Amino acid sequence: MHIAILTFEGFNELDSLIALGILNRVKLPGWRVSIASPAARVRSMNGVVLEAQASPAEAGTADAVIVGSGMRTREVVADAALMAQLRLDPSRQLLGAQCSGTLVLAKLGLINGVPACTDLTTKPWVEEAGVEVLNQPFVARGNVATAGGCLASQYLAAWVIARLVGLEEARSAMHYVAPVGEKEDYVARAMKNITPFMDTALATA
């Protein structure tokens, strides 16, 4: 089971790395979480450099893909050659987008006619792409989910785990990372945000 987190130059560390950390709480044989980038190394908006573990082509074959956000997302969507590498398909993959990653999915035509979540800075650009933006942290329909606000990445990660492994595994992952003394509150909040969008998964379980 491969989950790829698409991470571009100028990425937001919270959006990519919170998801990476939570997803890696799953300790199952064959479970792999990768930073996928067009370049061998990618630099964050604050100068943190990561080495890519996968390519966009590998993301196209992953079981789930999270599109991370960053300060240069509008440059990403304007790069036709780069966008052509993103062969994502919700009919065979779970797709999630964090903050300005929603703009990437919108430009790829993967959330047409479906309301989405994003951050406040990206909101007007997503709306210009013809997508209604909701005033909430997380939403999913079928195999496509979007989240708005850096710390909403926890909901995106929990949704991916719940869809691929189950709600109990998602609860366990959230419980591990939640602050001591607030664990039950954090888990309850995460489940409140993702369980309304689990009907498809439960129906096919």
Strand content: 15-25%
* Mean of residue pLDDT values: 93
Task: Please report the number of helical segments.
Answer: 10
Poorly predicted regions are 200-205
- Any idea what the radius of gyration is? 16 Å
Write down the overall geometry.
globular
Largest sheet: 6 strands, mixed
Instruction: State the helical fraction.
Output: 25-40%
Q: Looking across the biggest beta sheet, what order are the strands in? A: 2-1-5-6-8-7
SSE order: EHEEEHEHHEHHEEHHHH
Distance between the termini: 17 Å
Number of strands: 8
Characterise this structure:
With 205 residues, this protein is of the alpha/beta class. It contains ten helices and eight strands. The chain has helices spanning 13-23, 56-59, 73-78, 80-84, 101-107, 123-128, 153-164, 167-177, 183-194, 199-204; strands at residues 2-6, 32-36, 41-43, 49-51, 64-67, 94-98, 138-141, 144-147. It has a six-stranded mixed β-sheet, sandwiched between helices. It has a two-stranded antiparallel ribbon with strand order 3-4. α7 (153-164) packs antiparallel against α8 (167-177), α7 (153-164) packs across α9 and α8 packs antiparallel against α9 (183-194). It is globular and about 45 Å long. 43% of the residues are buried. The model is unreliable at 200-205 (pLDDT under 50).
